Amino acid sequence: MILEKRRLRRVWHTSRNSDDKRAYNSYMKLLKQTIKETENATIEANLLSLTATASTDYALWKACKNMNPTRNPKPLLRLHGNIWARSKQEKADAFALHLSKAFLPNEPKPFI
Question: Is 78 within a domain?
């Protein structure tokens, strides 16, 4: 299939015909779908062959452990008085207060 894809790409590059491009694109879509199906079948066969026993060093557990990685939680915002901001409005107010304190206009210098 990859050889056929290369042939279709070569034909399209030499002719620059829209029909050749359409044939190349449709074959690429078929090739990607075939590769995805093959990879899924391989992974499924591999997972079905694993066991969760000590004789296989708990390979099933090790394979499934990294499938759903943990998500990093968003850091919480602390308001004045050690109170946590819970609602979206409280978080927006806390951020606005922080920005108003962080970005102050420069004081004018006296002209001498």
Answer: no
